[in-house]
Amino acid sequence: MGNGNAARNEIITGLRQEEKTISPKYFYDERGSQLFDEITRLPEYYLTNTELAIMQDNIDEMVSLIGQQASLIEFGSGSSYKTRILLEHLDDLAAYVPVDVSEEHLLASASEIRAEFPHVDVLPVVADFTHEFDLPTPQVMPIRNIVYFPGSTIGNFEREDAIDLLRVMHHEAGEGGALLIGVDLQKDPEIIEAAYNDSAGVTAEFNTNILRHLNNQYDADFDVDAFTHDAQYDEEAGRVVLRLISEKDQTASVGEEDFHFDAGESILTEYSHKYTLKDFAGMADAVGFEVAHVWTDADELFSVQFLTRD
Ligand code: AVJ
Questions:
Q1: CA of 151, closest atom in ligand 1
Q2: Is the torsion defined by CA of 155, 157, 160, 161 positive or negative?
Q3: Which one of 121, 180, 272, 286 is separated from 225 by 20 to 30 angstroms, measured CA to CA?
Q4: What does the radius of gyration of the chain's CA atoms come to, in whole angstroms?
Q5: Mean pLDDT value of segment 85-111
Q6: Per-residue pLDDT at 1 exceeds 70
Q7: Measured in angstroms, how far is the CA atom of residue 67 from the centroid of ligand 1?
Q8: What tens digit of pLDDT does each residue of 225-239 get?
């Protein structure tokens, strides 16, 4: 995402909503990405460690389900340790195709992967993966496409949008293809709320940094210290809602446009949906995927799922 007018207009549109909203994609400037990295190492943030353990414990089974000479298509730039576990164990991949809108980030992580895995045909694609995109043609003809979407990033999308995204993945997987996806599960609300209200305050810093990012890149002038982090689990809706609460009556501008905040008024910055296995299977089914395999940890905090299609 650059700092062009299109993005600024999108931000302005969000802030004109009934509940003022900033898309979670604006969390990830350089500092935001560092803070997210820090979040993944917090004791309260069970998602990353649990998913990693599930991958490590079941990698042989995953590799055998993926099969020979697959093309691994990652939705996201693929800088994660989880991706490396797969690449270490899939020794005859036709190609590894990371897909991301941010060209800079994508190409940087693609060259790291190339250096670490010189035998892998790394073919990055710059695209917004919420819409269908064209796949590159690897030197070796892939037997099947495996879409990889780790981290429960699917949780960022509202239910209908998540189904639309699954539909795109179904399309990109193609005939006989599959999706390997990390999905966070519903559980004791206290465990969930603690993960988004860590005692070190890193998530609070991550949340407020979104305003700093807008100030630095999109000609905004938010008083960053006059907004407070808020994260609550809405059990009914099955999602964590991250907000920034205005501590006082204040006005901030983005480009030419002014936005007034009453004391106590919020900006919605992120949803993080949590699913039951049954719920998620229903969504998969709605787009033509079948849940072929589900791996979880012993406490069923998190799941990694293998969905197949005809
Ligand atoms: C990257 C979307 C999976 O929802 O847990 C972490 C982002 N936000 N702490 C999540 C996040 C606050 C994260 N995802």
A1: 3
A2: negative
A3: 272
A4: 20
A5: 96
A6: no
A7: 30
A8: 999 999 999 999 999
Burial of 278 (0-12, 13-18, 19+ CB in 10 A): exposed
If pLDDT is split at 50, 70 and 90, which confidence band does 18 have? very high
Question: Which residues approach ligand 1 with their CB closer than 6 A?
Answer: 39, 47, 151-153, 155-156, 196, 203, 206, 270, 272
* Ligand 1 center to 203 CA (angstroms): 9
Please indicate, yes or no, whether the overall pTM of this predicted structure exceeds 0.90: yes
218-221: Cβ within 8 A, 24+ apart: 218/3, 218/7, 218/8, 218/11, 218/254, 218/255, 219/8, 219/254, 219/255, 220/11, 220/252, 220/253, 220/254, 220/255, 221/252, 221/253
How confident is the prediction for the chain on average, in pLDDT? 97
- pLDDT band of residue 190 (cuts 50, 70, 90) is very high
Give 190's contacts (C-beta < 8 A, 6+ positions apart).
none
Distance 25 CA to ligand 1 centre (A): 11
